[in-house]
Each structure stands twice: as structure tokens, then as C-alpha cells.
Known about the structure:
This protein is an alpha+beta fold and 298 residues long. It has four helices and 18 strands. Helix 1 (72-93) packs antiparallel against helix 3 and helix 2 packs antiparallel against helix 3. The chain is elongated and about 120 Å long. The strands form four sheets. Strands 3-12-15-14-13-18 form a six-stranded antiparallel β-barrel. A five-stranded antiparallel sheet has the order 1-4-11-9-6, with no helix packed on it. 21% of the residues are buried.
Amino acid sequence: MWQVAPMLVVAFLATETDTTDAPRTARFERCLVSAIDEVEVPAQEPGLLSELTARPGQQVKRSDILGRINDTSASLRKQAAEAERDIAVEKASNDVNARYARAVRKVAETEYRLNADANAKVPGTKSLVEMQKLQLSIDQATLQIEQAEHDQKLAGLEAAANQIKVRLADDEIQRRQIRAPLAGEVVEVLYRAGEWVQMGDTVVRIVRLDRLRVEAFIKADRYSRSDVQGRPVQIRVAIGPNQQVTFAGQVTFVDPRIQAGGVYQVWAEVDNRQTDGQWELRPGLDAEMTIELAAPKQ
């Protein structure tokens, strides 16, 4: 399973400033931009990394294949299971034995009826033993029909069982693929092609950059949770000398716990954007966050 990487978040107490603008707002400085999702992509099976295409800085989409663990054995098992399935399917669709047994029974029934008619006209034409043998031929053909139909049914069940083997082998192949669990940017590759990995070893780290979190600490004696919960925010970040960018977002989390110093933490999420192929917001930047506070209750 994909594992969310533990993150060391260093946040600074924001300095809030009430504004006189309507609606009522509060500004907080030195807020921390951080990633919402940073994942460690593990090897789901042990084995030799036969392929690893992931590179630091690479933009990936969800489910992109980043590498492969050798899957030769699993591929061969899948081929064998597919062949066994196809044979069973062919057997299940073949009703030649059942049709032949029905034809044999029809002949036996006709022979029995003709001899029974002969006995009715001239008693003793066929002995009791001979008539019993004729009836036995009918019964035998009937059992052959049942056996042929039973064999077809078993072949159908065998085909279904082999299809499960195919799916299991396919799952083994899929588990040997290193896939991106989310869209983002590769920030670290810990192995190289040709190296051996154990189950659970982190192979690649990916950070989601299209949506980020901005964290601030707010004094509990100044603003209540209801003042900020779900409120719209504006984020301002310096990305270069005399260059600032702004983003709109919303408070998505208010920590119910009061921390040392009488503060509590809030998170606002913002949609990032790119300029010349580069994301403007990056985890680790300081930001200024202005929260549009809820109207005071009358």
C-alpha cells in the first residue's frame, strides 16, 4: 500500500493585524507553505529492479509507471494459466460426447420398441434376457449423456478456476510495477535499475504541488474557531526580489487543541499555478495569510 511520508512541519507564530476594511479581516505573517500530500512509493514485492524511469524533478500523473521489478516468473505463470483456461473453455464448449450418447440412446430405444412390438405380435420372438439387454443399452446411453454433461460442467468450473489463476498472476505482475499514486513531482529516487529491493522499501518520493497548504498559528484569546472555520483567505508570497504573487483559498482545518502560548493551528488550502512550467508556490516558503473573518454574532 502507498504510505504517506511523515513530515516535519516547522511553523512560526503568525503576527496578526486587524484591518478596518469591511468585511472584517485579520492578517497573519510568517505562515508556512507545506505539502498536503507527500508520499513514499514502496516496492510491493521483493526483487530486482529491472527498470526505473523516475527522475528527480519529473512531473508524473496518477498511475504512471515509474519502474518495474523483474516479473518474468509471474508472466510465465500467467501464460500457463491462460493456456489451461483456454483448454478448459474448449472442453466446456465441446458437446460431441453428449450428442453421440443421445444418438446411441435413440437407436437403442428404437431397437427396443421394434422388438417389443414383435413380441406383442408373436410372443417369445425375443426372450426376457434379450429384452433386458436392450433396456440396458438404453440405460447405458442415458448414463453416458449424464456423464458427458457432467464433464462439460466440470470443464466450465475448471475454466473459471484457471481464470482466477490468470487474475492472480496478473496481480503479481501489477504488484511489481512501481506506479505513481498521485499526480505530482518526483523529489527523490532512492534506488537505481539493477539494484535489489525488499518489500516495503521506499523507491521514490513524490510531492503533490497542484494544491498546497498554508499553516498559521492564531491566538485563542483573539479569535475563536468559529471566526475562522471555513473562511476564505488570501495568500501573498514573495517569490523573488520585488516580486509577489497572491492566491485565493479557504480554511479547511482548525485544530481543536490549544498549544503552549495559548495558540491553535489553522490550515488553509490553495490551488497552485504554473508559470513557464514552474509552480509558483513551493513547500517551505513563508507566506502572509489574510483571513476574512466571520461576521460577529449579534
